[in-house]
Design a protein that fits this description.
Layout lengths: L4 E7 L2 E8 L4 E5 L1 E6 L8 H8 L3 E5 H6 L4 H7 L1 H5 L4 E5 L2 H7 L6 H10 L4 E2 L12 H24 L5 E2 L9 H12 L6 E3 L3 H5 L3 H13 L7 E3 L8 H7 L3 E4 L1 H7 L2 E4 L2 E4 L11 H5 L2 H5 L3 H29 L2 H9 L3 H10 L3 H5 L20 H10 L7 E5 L9 E6 L3 E4 L18 H17 L4 E6 L4 H4 L7 E4 L2
Parallel strand pairs: 4-5, 4-11, 5-6, 7-8, 9-10, 10-11, 14-15, 14-17, 17-18
Antiparallel strand pairs: 1-2, 2-3, 12-13, 15-16
Helix pairs in contact: 6-7, 7-8, 8-10, 10-17, 12-15, 15-16, 16-17, 19-20
Length: 490
């Protein structure tokens, strides 16, 4: 695993990495988006995906190819790269989607992996059981056992095949979070290579982003840092930043084409219908060269292609924006901005911080200044880390904790900045205490600062503390230990 995936940069649990694909002889930068290509329905030519959009990797369905009277012999003869005319990495799905939709498929894991190997797939997939959300624990556990047996088969087949094809180890378990973690731990212990979190499409279709966050976080707890994580079926630009912040590295999207067939237009704030648009809020080549009226007047095939191209442009633009945010260290600010686009996405963002301790393990200890832009920021990993460090700091004498200046009447004067709380003045120019805060702070920010003061006081019970504050709300002041004297600055 460590030989094929290497992380270059972290922010929260988001990372920029390099996935080496031996059979293709290529290395793909992650986060990576894989457009889904239907071998029978070509909305956009795969060669254009590479030349126009810079796509390094795509995914197609080997089960469809295997069952096709028109394409099976041809793809076995020519290979999947020649069939699709695509120069990059090709990943193939196994038919698990069809299994979820129709209840049964006529192929085994061993047969489909051998077929994927024979057609030249670079990354193959076994036939797992994509258990839907909210099923009984008994069903989730039974289907997980079947998936794990198939992973054993995939291991055996992989070792037997004379091929450098990578093989995925899907992580299932429905919405049973302990089963997801257990499944991920089992998958990570195999000799397989890439770890898709499966069975989440129903959650995404229902805008259940909070549940999606919990499912992915549980899976990540069972995987090592060198495990490339694929979030199956997640390709809408509005949720990419959130999914990357959780630690997902690879995404596949059929949304660009499926939505286009229904005249739907993707944006980073959600989905619009073409009929509702008087102006295009995008600067891609499709939107700058056409008006909504012009595209509405196109024939069905042309309209679908133009919308699909826009949908891909906006999705890849967001992916580049996410990567730059990781480089700058402000990915969580981008997630915060995207969360304002939909109430359910905001639920997902808030749930993300239920896992702050998990995010903190990979979050860099130094980066650009934190921007405190909403009440959700009080639970960011940086705040949690600072509070844990307060429990290790010792200070003696009579100490002023002040939002103002130094007072020589005290032995020491520490600064207080919500939501972080107190810190020695010598650390004022040290990340994350260079935080940029608004003048009108949320109540939660003051309450979190008070919790930081409590942590410091409890670690130093023999020290005398005074808080000099500017109009802190009563809800924050009541969280202070009784031993802290309080004075309000004019």
């Amino acid at each position: 695993m460590g030989e094929i995936f290497e992380v270059r940069s972290f922010d929260a649990a988001g990372r920029i990495g390099e996935l080496t694909v031996p059979r293709a002889g290529l290395t793909v930068e992650t986060p990576a988006l894989l457009p889904v290509v239907n071998p029978h329905i070509g909305t956009i030519d795969p060669a254009d995906l590479a030349s126009e959009f810079g796509v390094e990797m795509l995914i197609t369905n080997s089960y469809i190819l295997n069952r096709s009277d028109d394409l099976r012999d041809r793809v076995l003869s020519e290979g999947v790269h020649t069939l699709l005319d695509f120069p990059g990495v090709i990943m193939t799905d196994s038919g698990s989607f069809q299994l979820a939709e129709y209840g049964d498929i006529e192929v085994t894991t061993e047969e489909i992996l051998q077929f994927q190997r024979d057609i030249g797939s670079d990354i193959g997939t076994p036939v797992d059981i994509p258990t839907p959300p909210d099923v009984s624990r008994a069903q989730a556990n039974e289907e997980l056992q079947t998936t794990q047996e198939r992973l054993k088969t995939a291991e055996r087949v992989g070792q037997k095949m004379d091929s450098e094809m990578l093989i995925t180890a899907p992580v299932q378990g429905s919405t049973q979070l302990d089963l997801r973690e257990q499944a991920a731990r089992h998958a990570y212990q195999t000799k397989l290579d890439v770890y898709p979190v499966g069975g989440v499409v129903p959650l995404l279709n229902a805008y259940r982003y909070a549940d999606m966050v919990d499912v992915v976080a549980a899976a990540k707890r069972g995987l090592g840092v060198d495990a490339p994580v694929h979030l199956f079926g997640a390709g809408h630009p509005m949720m990419l930043a959130l999914a990357v912040a959780l630690g997902c590295d690879v995404f596949d999207s059929a949304a660009y084409a499926i939505y286009a067939r229904d005249d739907r237009y993707l944006t980073v704030r959600g989905t619009e219908h073409l009929d509702d648009l008087a102006y295009f809020p995008c600067s891609c080549s499709i939107c700058t060269n056409h008006t909504p009226d012009e595209i509405r007047r196109c024939d069905d095939e042309t309209r679908e292609e133009l919308l699909a191209r826009h949908n891909l442009h906006v999705t890849f633009a967001e992916l580049r924006r996410v990567k730059q945010a990781i480089r700058r260290g402000n990915l969580l600010e981008l997630v915060d901005a995207r969360a304002r686009g939909h109430p359910k996405l905001l639920d997902g963002y808030r749930t993300l911080f239920d896992h702050s301790e998990q995010l903190e393990r990979s979050d860099p200890v130094s980066k650009d200044a934190v921007f405190h832009v909403s009440s959700e920021c009080v639970r960011r990993p940086e705040v949690m880390r600072h509070h844990s460090r307060l429990e290790r700091l010792s200070v003696d004498g009579d100490v002023l904790l002040s939002e103002g200046g130094v007072n020589e009447a005290f032995d020491e004067t520490w600064r207080v900045v919500p939501p972080f709380g107190p810190f020695p003045r010598s650390l004022s120019e040290t990340y994350p205490l260079t935080v940029e805060v608004p003048e009108r702070m949320s109540r939660k920010s003051y309450e979190m600062a008070a919790d930081g003061i409590r942590a410091l006081v409890e670690t130093n019970p023999d020290t005398s503390f005074t808080l000099a504050h500017r109009e802190w709300p009563k809800s924050a002041l009541t969280r202070l230990p009784n031993a802290v004297a309080v004075t309000e600055l004019s």
